[in-house]
Structure formats: C-alpha cells, structure tokens
Amino acid sequence: xxxxxxxxxxxxxxxxxxxxxxxxxxxxxxxxxxxxxxxxxxxxxxxxxxxxxxxxxxxxxxxxxxxxxxxxxxxxxxxxxxxxxxxxxxxxxxxxxxxxxxxxxxxxxxxxxxxxxxxxxxxxxxxxxxxxxxxxxxxxxxxxxxxxxxxxxxxxxxxxxxxxxxxxxxxxxxxxxxxxxxxxxxxxxxxxxxxxxxxxxxxxxxxxxxxxxxxxxxxxxxxxxxxxxxxxxxxxxxxxxxxxxxxxxxxxxxxxxxxxxxxxxxxxxxxxxxxxxxxxxxxxxxxxxxxxxxxxxxxxxxxxxxxxxxxxxxxxxxxxxxxxxxxxxxxxxxxxxxxxxxxxxxxxxxxxxxxxxxxxxxxxxxxxxxxxxxxxxxxxxxxxxxxxxxxxxxxxxxxxxxxxxxxxxxxxxxxxxxx
Amino acid sequence: xxxxxxxxxxxxxxxxxxxxxxxxxxxxxxxxxxxxxxxxxxxxxxxxxxxxxxxxxxxxxxxxxxxxxxxxxxxxxxxxxxxxxxxxxxxxxxxxxxxxxxxxxxxxxxxxxxxxxxxxxxxxxxxxxxxxxxxxxxxxxxxxxxxxxxxxxxxxxxxxxxxxxxxxxxxxxxxxxxxxxxxxxxxxxxxxxxxxxxxxxxxxxxxxxxxxxxxxxxxxxxxxxxxxxxxxxxxxxxxxxxxxxxxxxxxxxxxxxxxxxxxxxxxxxxxxxxxxxxxxxxxxxxxxxxxxxxxxxxxxxxxxxxxxxxxxxxxxxxxxxxxxxxxxxxxxxxxxxxxxxxxxxxxxxxxxxxxxxxxxxxxxxxxxxxxxxxxxxxxxxxxxxxxxxxxxxxxxxxxxxxxxxxxxxxxxxxxxxxx
Lengths: 419, 419
Fold this sequence. Notes:
The structure holds 2 protein chains of 2 kinds.
Chain A: E1 3-4, H1 16-27, E2 29-36, H2 43-51, E3 74-82, E4 85-93, H3 108-126, E5 140-145, H4 154-163, E6 169-173, H5 181-197, H6 211-222, E7 226-227, E8 234-237, E9 240-247, E10 250-253, H7 262-272, H8 274-299, H9 304-308, H10 316-414
Parallel strand pairs in A: 2-4, 2-5, 5-6, 6-7
Antiparallel strand pairs in A: 3-4, 8-9, 9-10
Chain B: E1 15-16, H1 28-39, E2 41-48, H2 55-63, E3 80-90, E4 93-103, H3 115-134, E5 150-155, H4 164-173, E6 179-183, H5 191-207, H6 220-230, E7 235-236, E8 243-246, E9 249-256, E10 259-262, H7 271-281, H8 283-305, H9 320-418
Parallel strand pairs in B: 2-4, 2-5, 5-6, 6-7
Antiparallel strand pairs in B: 3-4, 8-9, 9-10
Helix pairs in contact in B: 7-8
C-alpha cells in the first residue's frame, strides 16, 4: 500500500523499540496462569519452582491441601519484580478437579470461569467510558497428566477437548521422576498420538522468520508434552545448590535438562513465549468468544447466517442497519403486492358493478323496447279499429242516407206524386 | 495494541513476594518489543499550513528522503487533504509513514470553512477505527491504523502574532489531535524577534485556551529533556534538502549571500529539537495519546450519540449483551410497528373503498328501482289504454251487432208491408 522509500541519512525512528520498551516497563505486566490436575500431582510445587518463590506455603496452602467436594476456582495474585520489571502474576487454582468419584462435568466450573473473565473484559471494552481495562483473562492453562506411563485418561481427553478453543492449553507430564527416559519417551509418543487422534489443539509455538529460533522451537516441539519435576527444597549436589528431590538412589535435579524438561517449560513459558501466550489469548480465544457472543445478540434466534456458517464482519449496529434496510425493501415489496391485490380486487368489483349496470341497463332497454312495441301495437290496433269504425260509421251513414233517400222516395211514391 | 496492559497495581489484593533466584520474566519487555518490531510500526503526520510555507520541504528534511510532492497552486477552490503513505526502514525497524498535506489551506478569500475538511478527515479516520472495533469479526491486530498521531501546525514567520485563521483552526483541532505548533521559514526572523514572537504566540495560545501537545514528563528517563523542550515551543524550523559545504563538512543548509543557514545547527534553528522530540523520544507517546485520549473522546461522543449508556436509570451497570439486546428489542419493535402501520393502512383503505363501492352499488340499484317503477307506471298506462281500446272495440262490436240486427229487421217489415 505504501511506497518504498530509502532514507539518505539517519532519521531516528529506529529508537521506536526503545520507546516501546520504556513505556512497557513503566506500565508493568500482567499474566494469569491456570493450573489444572488431580490432587497430589505437584502443581503447587511446580509453580513455586517456576517462579522461585513461595507462592504456596504453610500460610497459603496449595489446592491439594484444601479438601473440596466440588471443583472450585480460586485466584491468588502476587506481585513480583525482577530487573526493574514488575509482573502481576495471577495463579488460578482448580482444587477438586478430577478428585470426585463421579467427575462428569467437572470442567464446567472452569469453562464458566474462563468465560466470565472474557465477559468481564468484553464489558469493560465496550463501555462508553473506558478507563483502565484490567486484563484478568486466562493466558495459559497448564494441564497436569498423571505419570501412568500408558496414555491419557478419558478425563484428560474430555477436558482438553472442551478447553482447547477457549484457552492456550499446555499439557505437562507431572512427577516425571517416576518414569525412566525410555518410559517417558513412549508415554510422550502415546499422548501426542492420542492428542492428534482427538484433534485437540494444544498451544502452538509460532513460526518466526528467524532460522535459529525456528530450530529451537522444533526442538521443543519434539519434546512435547513436557515432563516436569518440581521441588520446594534446595539440596547440595557436587558443591552446587540446586532444587531437587533427594532419593536414596540419588538426586533428581529440577533444572537439569537430562533429568526433566523443567527448564524448557520455564524458558518457554516465562522467558520467550509469555507475550505470545497473551497475544494468542487476545487475538484468537478472546476474539472467538466475542464474535460468538455478539453474533448471538445480533441474530437472536434468526438462524440464516448461522446456517451459512459465516459470522458477519460487521458490527451489531451495522448489522441492524442492514436488517433495517432489508426490512424496508421487504415492506416496499409487501406494499406493492398488497397494492396490486387491492387494485385487482377493486378492478374486479368495479367491473362487476359495470356489468351489473350494463345488465340492468340492457334489461331496462329491453323492457322499454317491449313497452314501446306494445305501445306501437296498441296504436296500430287503435288506428285499425278507428279506421274500421269510422269506415263502418261512414258506411252506416251512407246506408242510412240511402235508406232515408229510398224511404222518402217510397213516401213520395205513395203520395202519388210520381206518375 | 498495548491498551490491555494498564497500570492496575494500585487497587489489587496482592502479595509482594521476593524471588529466590532469576526467574526470567525481565525479558518480558524484550518479548513485547520483538513482537512490535515484527509487526512493524505506523505513524501518521498531518501538516497544516499555508501553501508554500515549507511543509513538504520540512518532511523531506525530517525523514531524509525525497517524498513526491507537486507544488500546489494558490488557486484551489477549497481545502482538501492529500494523504500519502510510505514504507520506510531504519536498521530492523519498519515504519509505515503517512503524511497528510492540507492543500489550499489559507488561499481562499473566505476562510471560514477552511478547518472543516481537516476536522472531517481526522474524524473519518477515528470513525474507520471505531467501525473496525465494533465489528463482530474483527482483526485489530493487523489493522492499518490511519488515525493522525500528530498535527504539525505551520505558523507564518510574520514576527508579530498568530493569524486569526491559525487560532480558529488550532482551537477546532486541539481536542482531536496532538498539535505541535512550529514557526516555519525561521531563517527570516532574527534571534531577538524570534524570542518575542515565541512568547507572543504561546501567550496567545494560552489565552485562547488552545491545548497543544505537552511532551510527557512522567517518565524519569525522558522527563528532563522533555521538560526543557516544552519551554522552547513553538519550534522555529528551517528545512532544506540541499547540501552545502561548510568548512570540511557537507551539511544540509540554505545558502544566502550573507551566510549559510545550517538546518542541523541548534544555534541556527530548532530543527534538531523538533526531530528529537517528534521522532527519537516521543513518537510512541504520540501514538499512545492519540489512542488513549483523542480516540477515546471521539468514541465516547459517538457512542453517546448512538444512545449507548454505561448505566441504566437505576445506576446498575449495563452489560454489553444487555445493551445490544435492548437495542435489538427496540429495533425489532420498531420494525414490527411499521409493519402493523402499513397493514392497518391497507385495512382502512380496503374498508373505505368497499364502502364507496357499496354506495355506488346502492345508487345503481336505486336508479334501477326508479326506472323499474317508471316502467311499471308506463306498463300500467299501456294496459289502461289497451283496456280502453278493448272497451271501445267491444262497444263498437255491440253497436255493429245491434245495427245489423236492426238493419235486417226493417227489411222484413218492408217485405211484410209489401205483401
């Protein structure tokens, strides 16, 4: 879209990244991490190990220590600083998950929680007066898989299937120090196979233009799901102080990449991909939630577009505008149709009336003619009659006269006047 | 955009924890920066000033490149805005720069409406962004942001004061965009005149309540330099793309018979200060202010215009869903009402026409009833006449018969007499 221009000298906008850096440090960062798994899988320990802090301690016990009957969703917020960077970290626990005898729908409170965070964000984003928009959306969900060595449990599959389109799911093999490297390999292969089989979309590392980075990403991908070990205790090994688990047969070191994938998880989650987890949550999961929510509001039961499987790219208001215009067209058409029907009916009726009138007129004409004919006939008859009568009368008179004349003659004869 | 990371540390229930080692989230700003660099930056400058005041030259000088610009004539009918987008790169930073020129500004005889196309352009860019933000399916993260981040207002170097056009225009723009006033072609003003000029301009701006952009002083890293620069406003700049040899260096300058005005010499003009502030120090802040202040103000006004509120009459906060649902209900109710109205209108029309036609029918029948009655009368008359005639005929016949009998008798008498 823009023209490429070459600069003839140093301008200075190469400092933009520094400006962005400064501003972001001043603002501070937020991150919300959710941990899900059955009790006793070492979730709290892992969190403590990841953030090198006693998030869960005797004072603030971890989820497993709180015996719950139903699945709860709890938040702990901590503010941690490092190198001038402030991070507000929220850990969302789900105590009780998978612990009941009947675990049907135990994922529901979790889904509800994720949705309610999306809802909060959507509402604050949609306010007229927007001030601070705190982002409490879940950026990442660490799912702990029990180290059975065999495969995923039905609950694992159910959970991941239901949540993979709502949150970035990173499956972890918990307490990996109970598996030998070979068992671990097998287990990982089996899990990934099952994940693919069920079309579960776990968090994907983004492709970059950087060759080096891509190689690192590929190395991580080959080790998925990451097998982790956590520890709250520091042990001395060969003069070094490391976090680890002391066994009679040796020490399983948390940060030893030969022992487990903890460092990979930490580097990926915190040091390289934390921002990307937030971006994917914002650009993909949240947008999905938002468009589904707004489409529901807009269509309110009208299934036309849903049936087409497409979501409108317009805003709900623009959608209403379009619907309004459609309605106007529909109304115009309806009006035209009704007008037509009306005209037709009127025409019919008028025609009928005309016909009726014509008929009556005809009959009237007919009767008139009849009457006239009768009149004429009568007149003719009268004329004939009168003619006849006057003729007869004339004749009578003539005869009378004749008779008078003859009688007079007779009389005169009698009188002898005639010789 | 980074609007989601906001300083919310003040009102949260959280614990401050110390870390037992290097966790690694101090790389978060780097992660953010690397993501921004990959995405690329975009920056939009609006240059407002009379024709020939040196806008294009200054842009060329600032960005060390020859942007295409035909010289505008003084005979434009009105003011129109000409945006041009360029792709620039400096080290690994990509910048999509849009320069918007106001062509024809200050040339008309009647300049009352000169500010309107400018305000309209700024509002249109806000509107486009708002529309994208309101869409159901939106892609904000790769949206080409065309909102104006900075307006450089070029003041003519009269040496006296601001023109009324300047005050009117800046007043109309100050709530919509970051304004940095600059004195153009500053090489026509002497140092002492310049000092007085600057003071006059700033006091006029203050007394007229024009809000110009203040370089931010809340970040310790840049507060000092920003504060000192604030005191040098408005910047008196000279632009030039021609190179002149001065001493043993070749610098950008303007050659006069009496000397050489060096663009990058801070004792000659404030060009370097402008470049520092605009590009090297505060570019990101300008973008942020545009988004967080000017855009939010526009958005708030627009949404209020459309009837959106944050709280209902009982001061309960509306959720987005409720708001949209309410609007939709209203909208559907409206459509339904319109439909009803139309139907009702037709029903009335039909009733009216029916009544009319019935009336006509009735009239027709009446007419024919009347005719029928007339006809009956006529018929009766004819009958009477016929009866009359018949009577006469009968009477005549009787006479005839009587006469005949009578006439035959006298003959007999005569005959008798003779005998």
